[in-house]
Design brief:
Structural class: alpha+beta
Number of strands: 7
Oligomer: single chain
Largest sheet: 7 strands, antiparallel
Strand content: 15-25%
Radius of gyration: 26 Å
Number of helices: 6
Order of helices and strands: HHHEEEEHEEHHE
Distance between the termini: 63 Å
Length: about 180
């Protein structure tokens, strides 16, 4: 190649403000960001998953910012949908208020251990059952509510008749919160 041609080619080069190494790192970071929604979910023990598929109740305790349990515990209806515990509750319940305040971490016990905190209740018997931590998020997804109501009609056929319309209208008005707990 002639000297004139080499000089012309050299002058056509454009300096890039980013190095090849930085470009590769940026690309790797972008791929990781795209893969984030596909990250692996926490694997629950098979006995816990089996119990979630057949139990009538879970006991939910929002965790305070220091990681300690709240004093609010109670048995609640739920659906095990897409590997998440889903429930609907009054927006004034501690579960809903905790999530709204950013206290998303929750401890969940699985199984029917009787009523908590009642005169004839079981006290803390639920603590002997399997438990796991989860992250709670409120949802306004009407399709998720429909799936939950379908689950409730199957799991609680005698009781759901007096609750379903209140749950639906409360969801529509915002008086009830649909909460999805994803295992950590």
């Amino acid at each position: 190649m002639s000297e004139k041609r080499r000089t012309a080619r050299a002058s056509e080069r454009v300096e890039c403000p980013i190095t090849r190494r930085e470009l590769i790192a940026l690309g790797a970071g972008a791929l990781a960001a795209l893969a984030w929604p596909l990250r692996a979910r926490a694997a629950l023990a098979p006995d816990v998953t089996g119990l979630l598929e057949r139990s009538g109740f879970v006991y939910v305790s929002p965790l305070k910012s220091d990681g300690s349990e709240s004093s609010c515990h109670g048995e609640v209806w739920y659906g095990w949908l897409d590997a998440d515990v889903v429930l609907i509750t009054s927006r004034t319940s501690w579960k809903a208020r905790a999530v709204a305040r950013g206290l998303e971490r929750t401890r969940i016990w699985v199984g029917d251990h009787g009523r908590v905190g009642r005169v004839l209740g079981s006290g803390d018997a639920f603590r002997k059952g399997p438990s796991f931590e989860a992250r709670g998020q409120q949802s306004r997804d009407a399709a998720l509510l429909e799936r939950l109501m379908t689950t409730y009609r199957r799991k609680y056929p005698k009781e759901i008749g007096s609750w379903e319309s209140r749950m639906r209208s409360g969801f529509e008005s915002g008086d009830r919160s649909l909460i999805r707990y994803t295992p950590l």
